[in-house]
Amino acid sequence: MPEIDEVSAFGQPSPPESPAGQAVALSSGNALFNKYELGKLLGCGAFAKVYHGRDIESGQSVAVKVINKNRLNDNVNLMGNIKREISIMSRLRHPYIVKLLEVMATRTKIYFVLEFVKGGELFAKVAKGRFSEDLSRKYFQQLISAVSYCHSRGVFHRDLKPENMLVDENGDLKVSDFGLSAITEQVRPDGLLHTLCGTPAYVAPEILTRRGYDGARIDVWSCGVVLFVLTAGFLPFNDPNLMNMYRKIYKGEFRCPKWMSPDLKRFLSRLLDTNPNTRITINEIEHDPWFSKGYTQLKCHETEDLCNVVKEEQDRKLLDLNAFDIISFSSGLDLSGLFQEKHRPAEFVERFTAEEQPEKVIEKVEEVVNAEHGGVRLRRKKDCGLELDGHNGNYVVQLEVYRLTDNLVVVEVKREPGDVDMFSDLWKDKIRPLIVRQPEQQVAGD
């Protein structure tokens, strides 16, 4: 089936992008694909905007994510992750997971029609004050139900946090944003995943070691951080200095507030066990005394019946997906993962771990740069850092090394605006391989 032309899809050229909070002027006469009216802008990211929408035929509220294809054309890795997200969301049908209802496309845009969750982010609610243990238990039980379902279907979320959880009008949880998710097909021969991804405060310690990790076990860790936030009102691992926060995570240094019950404190210690091999599993969670209070587990047939109800319609939509070769976008997607600052352009900052002593990293960089004759000047900085001034000031690079553990460091490289291409070859071909000592996997995929 050919893609629909932008003009014929709307009956007229697309309206201009609307500023935050304003509605897109689409009446039933020129609605999106003659099916959906778009209203208030709910949120926006680097590649997508999300609007409130209304199904003209049923009157049902939906969320419509609008993605600009042109911004994705130069990023093959991003497109691959987005396609994988569609595949993942299309296979998930669970009461506590946001549903993907439909996908449509024009020459320049892709439209994802999602279940509209009226209550907003869970984060916004807990930001007003910590929850009682009973309310926290309810949300945590629903979260574990959703996560267990995902794992049973070979899906690992990898970015669980209150910002990626919504609350509907009935007060029930809905897990969203599967942009960083992985599937079992991505597991390497060693049985592990290897992509560095997640949100720093919620990431499991084994991800920091760069040796591979079990997708199910890192989801359990993130669930533990979520439960702590709900009941305490603050993060278990937090520090203005990012490296200090990583050290606390790696060592499992956190303290439960005095108002937590002994059973909850014990439960959290098992969820936030830094050893993934002894960390509590989903099955063990469901039998824990604190967790199981009032817990009614969804029966397999209940979920399967739900799947069967939507199967015929979903199959039809998947045919449309394949016809368009569609790609999606999640507002939570951050391809640079754990070691990327969101407020800086991706090409200007990079972080990665290396098994080396800080001083040795500095010596290796100096060795490479001094062997070059490209007019690169070096200046040592305090606390294991270097400033590289290259090609008559055409670029300035700041390199700093932070000790994470006795034999593990985080190398941070910041490139100032300028001719970064002149530095890229030197960095990619000579400096970085010498530090890492073996090829790094691209952040975009396992």
Could you walk me through the main structural features you see in this protein, from its secondary elements to its overall organization?
The chain folds into 3 domains: about 5-115 and about 300-325, Phosphorylase Kinase, domain 1 (2-Layer Sandwich); about 120-300, Transferase(Phosphotransferase), domain 1, CATH 1.10.510.10; about 345-435, 2-Layer Sandwich (TATA-Binding Protein), CATH 3.30.310. Helices cover about 35% and strands about 20% of the residues. It has helices spanning about 5-10, 75-90, 120-125, 135-150, 205-210, 215-230, 240-250, 260-270, 280-285, 290, 300-325, 360-370, 420-435, and strands at about 35-45, 50-55, 60-70, 100-105, 110-115, 155, 165, 175, 180-185, 350-355, 375-380, 385-390, 395-405, 410-415. The protein has a 5-stranded antiparallel sheet. The two termini are about 30 Å apart.
